[in-house]
Task: inverse folding
């Protein structure tokens, strides 16, 4: 599961082109010539590291509230779309559930799951890693965490895609599909909440239902608003990260061989490839009053896209960020966003990514893209439509 | 050498305690706790690693 951070769905060709590119670094480099790129009157893209960082730290001025991005939800998502001071009350109950000491206990389970999934195709010598591995892995981890049946996997994927990738070419055309998926999410989780209330367990949902803010348990609506965010922020983003990372390694056999030879490099390689690929390339905010970024005026009510992908490769800020260095140190990247809305699931995401890289390479150390493969990245969150791999069948 | 934490800035990325667990720990929310008042000489490089990897610049070194 991943993050509180979520990419916006505003119609800006610059941001969607960057996200959908196999080389977002090149587009980001062009955009960084200006600190702020205005698209029309009400949309600004912030490109440089220092400005992105500063804006992330001003959550009252650059609000992550419901006005920043439309995800089909009826009420603000918790905690992503909650401004201070209320925000911290929710994070105080949610952060401990996703803290490192909590997620570390999941490692053995994730190891087992990765092995089981890879076993399905290891002998075959080829797979679509996206459909067969990077999609089911995070979603299965989530279902297990929430105490939900694996039979619901398909339903979850369709609800998630209904919000993140609804059919239609424009925001207007996509809106009905998005609302329908949202309705389905509310109804599904309301039924689960009702059932769980009768027989709570030690799963994540039961623990959230038992949490209190100011001595009061969360209402059903608040629990739904948390669950909605989990679906859209926690499933797709790990898929995106795995797609981006494995696609990179498939095309850079020297780096892949280095990881196979020296698995202790995996934690820093995960950080570096998250920086390099920025699977969540931007986060959306809305300016609550008139202000200035990098000397450029930002109007009240203007939508502000903070381009994490560009901040992460801004080598004016930190020289040498234009190459991949799997043992990079320091690497203070912003792939999980920053400020108070820092990805809630970042520790779980890291665990899943590290375990996936370690276990996958133990079973399948060598792989490549079939000749002639053209990788197509999705706009918004950077997943791949398909990630075909060929490899020698494992022993 | 001392490590100074700006706890207002820390939002729990957890880079410090992942990279230098001898010097940094996590509280219940996953936010940074500095474990040592004074950094032992043998851990100075480790301290720098923890500090410079913070995306929020919530940590600094005082010599």
Result:
């Amino acid at each position: 599961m991943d993050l509180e951070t979520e990419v916006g769905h505003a119609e800006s060709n610059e941001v969607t082109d960057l996200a959908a590119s196999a080389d977002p670094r090149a587009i980001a480099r062009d955009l960084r010539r200006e600190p702020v790129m205005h698209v029309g009157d009400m949309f600004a893209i912030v490109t440089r590291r220092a400005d992105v960082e500063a804006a992330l730290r001003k959550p009252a001025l650059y609000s992550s509230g419901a006005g920043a991005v439309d995800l089909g939800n009826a009420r603000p998502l918790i905690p992503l779309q909650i401004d201070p001071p209320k925000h911290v009350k929710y994070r105080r109950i949610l952060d401990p559930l996703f803290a490192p000491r909590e997620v570390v206990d999941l490692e053995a389970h994730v190891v087992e799951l990765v092995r089981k999934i890879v076993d399905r195709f290891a002998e075959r010598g080829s797979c679509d890693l996206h459909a067969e591995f990077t999609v089911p892995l995070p979603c299965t981890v989530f279902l297990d965490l929430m105490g939900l049946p694996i039979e619901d996997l398909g339903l979850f994927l369709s609800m998630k895609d209904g919000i993140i990738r609804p059919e239609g070419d424009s925001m207007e055309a996509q809106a009905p599909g998005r609302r329908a998926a949202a309705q389905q999410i509310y109804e599904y989780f309301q039924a689960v909440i009702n059932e769980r209330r009768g027989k709570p367990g030690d799963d994540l949902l039961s623990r959230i239902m038992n949490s209190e803010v100011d001595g009061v348990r969360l209402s059903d609506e608040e629990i739904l608003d948390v669950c909605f965010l989990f679906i859209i922020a926690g499933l797709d983003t790990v898929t995106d990260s795995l797609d981006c990372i494995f696609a990179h390694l498939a095309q850079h056999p020297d780096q892949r061989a280095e990881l196979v030879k020296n698995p202790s490099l995996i934690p820093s390689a995960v950080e570096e490839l998250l920086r390099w690929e920025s699977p969540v390339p931007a986060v959306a905010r809305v300016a609550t009053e008139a202000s200035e970024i990098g000397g450029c005026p930002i109007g009240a009510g203007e939508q502000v896209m903070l381009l994490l992908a560009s901040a992460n490769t801004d080598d004016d800020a930190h020289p040498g960020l234009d190459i991949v260095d799997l043992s990079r140190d320091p690497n203070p990247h912003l792939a999980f966003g920053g400020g108070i809305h820092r990805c809630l699931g970042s520790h779980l995401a890291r665990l899943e990514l590290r375990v996936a890289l370690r276990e996958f390479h133990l079973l399948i150390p060598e792989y490549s893209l079939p000749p002639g493969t053209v990788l197509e990245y999705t706009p918004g969150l950077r997943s791949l439509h398909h990630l075909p791999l060929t490899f020698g069948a494992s022993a | 050498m001392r490590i100074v934490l700006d706890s207002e800035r820390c939002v729990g990325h957890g880079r410090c305690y992942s990279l230098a667990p001898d010097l940094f720990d996590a509280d219940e929310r996953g936010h940074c706790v500095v474990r040592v008042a004074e950094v032992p000489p043998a851990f100075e490089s480790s301290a720098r690693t923890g500090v410079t990897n913070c995306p929020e610049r919530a940590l600094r070194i005082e010599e």
